[in-house]
Amino acid sequence: MADRVGLFSVGVAVLLLLTVLELVRRRRLLERYAILWLFSAVVLLGFAVWEGLLDRVAAVIGIAYPPTALFLIAGGFALVLLLHFSAAVSRLADQSKVLAQRNALLEERTRRLEAAAAATAQAAEEARGAEAPAPAAEGAEGEPARVTPIRRRTGGR
Amino acid sequence: MTSQSSHLAVVPAYNEAGTVTGVVRALHERRPDFDVLVIDDGSTDATGAVAEAAGARVLRHPFNLGIGGAVQSGFTFALDQGYSYMVQVDGDGQHDPGEIARLIETMEAEPGLDMVCGSRFLTKDSGYPAPISRRTGIHIFAFLLSRIVGQRVSDPTSGFRLYNRRAIALFARDYPHDYPEVEAVLMLHFHRLRMREIPVRMFARGGGVSSISSGKSVYYMVKVLLAIFIGLVRARPVVDPGDAAPVAASQGL
Questions:
Q1: In angstroms, what separates the C-alpha of A101 from chain B's closest C-alpha?
Q2: pLDDT grade, residue A155 (50/70/90)?
Q3: I want to staple B153 with a disulfide (CB 3.0 to 4.6 A). Which of B145, B159, B172, B203 is the partner?
Q4: What b-and-e string marks burial along B85-98, b requiring 16 or more CB atoms within 10 Å of the CB?
């Protein structure tokens, strides 16, 4: 293999490997998703370093210029990774659908319960008022506690 | 909680503030024995508030899930709250609540039926005003589905359907995403549930925009055909207790 192309390939593969490792180390990439990346980086590095293997693989596939085989393999990995992420996105879409539905059910239930609680509190208030007219309505708020909306957490950089 | 009927009418609605009041009122008027649940599928108009004001219970999705996700919320609600029948009625006023009685009669006359579906195409004078392109599409789906399930299905895209408890449980667990009515017929077939169609009248849409604009008809056709063929071989998750969760964290390729 021409030296410059060989060196370049090794450099790229090493860079990829280090980037993935660093991302995992900083917890920016879940191990679950990192494994495929690590695997591709290691295989690419292997091919880049071990010239004989690449030559043989190129000959088997029928590629005249071996470094091209390296890029073909890299492209193959890219495809697999993309498919992997499409599957991951589909799963997330499924999960967020179920969450949205469950959330809607809970919200409806909460509204019902709050309305019922408010009605009960009001009825109690009126009953007390009929017995002995209280000077001032102390506490005994019919209104349920307000929940402050949860702010979106800023991503840990 | 308040006393509850055993019959639920589910109205999926996405930006139908103009028509949903009429639908809810008509349901209350014609079918006082039904609880009415409107699914506000992430509308940007006042659909949810309007439906609530009309006296319906309302589920509000935080964002738009599409018709499949909306109706499935209805199934989940019906399952959780123990309803024995659920009828699905479009939010645009196409379906006549007066016909619900006939859906129920059919269901009760024939034990073993799990879904009864209102069809526009079983009578000559259904008066259904649809463009010829859409009707052709529906007839193609109908032809294919009838061959697959071995029973005549004349109107597979109709959303005017009555479900019993078994069908509710099935669809709460798994309901198709994008063009659910067609694939739901397939699902029933593969789970060995039974359905039947009866002729109903449908009105022209009272307002709003159909989820299928005529320009997108061809695209729609291709997608539904794909759904039918994928549906033939789709994995049908019946999760037994102790099995892996159908949507688990560690699933990759």
A1: 6
A2: very low
A3: B145
A4: bbbbbbbbbbbbbe
How confident is the model at residue B236, as a pLDDT? 64
Chain A residues with CB-CB distance to B76 below 8 A: 101-102, 105
H or E stretch covering B198:
strand B195-199
Residue with tokens 């495929």: A36
Shortest CB distance from B252 goes to which of A84, A97, A105? A84
Which chain A positions have a beta carbon within 8 Å of B247's beta carbon?
Answer: 91, 94-95, 98
- Say whether B73 and A101 touch across the interface (CB within 8 A): yes
Give the pLDDT score at B123. 74
What does the pLDDT look like over B53-80, one tens digit per residue?
999 999 999 999 999 999 999 999 999 9
Q: 């009707």: which residue's tokens?
A: B135
pTM score > 0.95 for this model?
no
CA distances from A107 to A110, A117, B199 (A): 5, 15, 37
Interface of A with B (CB under 8 A): 32, 36, 80, 83-84, 87-88, 91, 94-95, 97-98, 100-105, 107-108, 112, 116
Q: Residue B43: how many CA atoms within 13 Å on its side-chain side? A: 24
- Residue A36 pLDDT class (50, 70, 90 cuts): confident
Q: Is B234 on the interface with A (CB under 8 A)?
A: no
Q: Which of B187, B206, B207, B203 is nearest to B195 (CA)?
A: B187
Q: Chain-centre distance of CA A37, in angstroms?
A: 16
Q: Block means of pLDDT (10 residues each) for chain B, length 253 residues?
A: 77 94 94 95 94 95 94 96 95 90 94 93 65 78 91 91 95 86 90 92 64 67 83 70 63 51
Rounded to an integer, what distance in angstroms lies between the CA atom of residue B91 and that of residue B19? 7
Which of B36, B40, B61, B175 would you mutate first to test chain A, the one with the most A CBs within 10 A?
B61
**Which residues does chain A have within 8 Å of residue B82's beta carbon, measured at their own beta carbons?**
none
